[in-house]
Amino acid sequence: MKVQLDNVPKKENSLSKKDYKQQLKQLQYHLLSLQLTLRKHGIALVCVFEGMDAAGKGGAIKRLTERMDPRGYVVHPISAPKPHEKRYHYLHRFWRKLPMHGQIAIFDRSWYGRVLVERVEKFATKAEWSRAYQEINSFEQQLTDESYIVMKFWIQISNEEQLKRFVERKNDPFKQWKLTEEDWRNRDKWQDYVNAAEEMLEKTDSEHAPWFVLAGDDKKYARLQVIRHAIDSIEAELSRRKLDFPPIHDKDLSQILDE
What we know:
By secondary structure, the protein is α/β, with parallel strands linked by helices. It has 10 helices and 5 strands. The chain has helices at residues 17-41, 57-65, 92-95, 117-120, 126-145, 159-171, 181-187, 190-204, 219-240, 253-258, and strands at residues 44-51, 73-77, 104-108, 148-156, 211-215. The protein has a 5-stranded parallel sheet, sandwiched between helices. The radius of gyration is 19 Å and the shape is globular.
């Protein structure tokens, strides 16, 4: 996938607040029914979320999992590796977090840190991050060969929108924990991160584990798109395997929307 991230078309949610909530609920219940179908057939799902700081990954994950069976998924917030983790190959800590068959694992940042932050901040040598593209492709191929679905999201926001969200977090005492000095420093390397991400998207987009790039300036639009894409991807895989799945949650739609 060759893409210029600064030129990703901005999209806006045109729904009213009421219609947005109704559509979100309908999609979430649909996703719940698919989660139960994956469990029934022993198919594991791995969701990867990447994007610029403050792109809305956490908010999208929250809406994605809001109506799921909590016994069937786990969210892994990924930060810098711990000292003991550095004793192993960088993929080791991710192998340990993979879901069992029939379960879902969601990665808020992931193994792509090797070719993003570790590349830009020079935590990895050029030789290390250069060979990581093939290592990652091989890793994901092994997963999809072993009854896993691998879903990868890149949420892109503009430089201006990121600054706006940073300022909002700085001024909101309940969101200040989301903002660090490192986040401010990373803004000075915006283009370096864009360049690294564009090369990553080009070299790790594959038929078995494709990237889904979406505009995130409008949070509501992005959240709906994430769930729609998750539904489409799961249904496509179930269809490929000739497995039945419910078109919508068993409950009557009018009941769902009125709750």
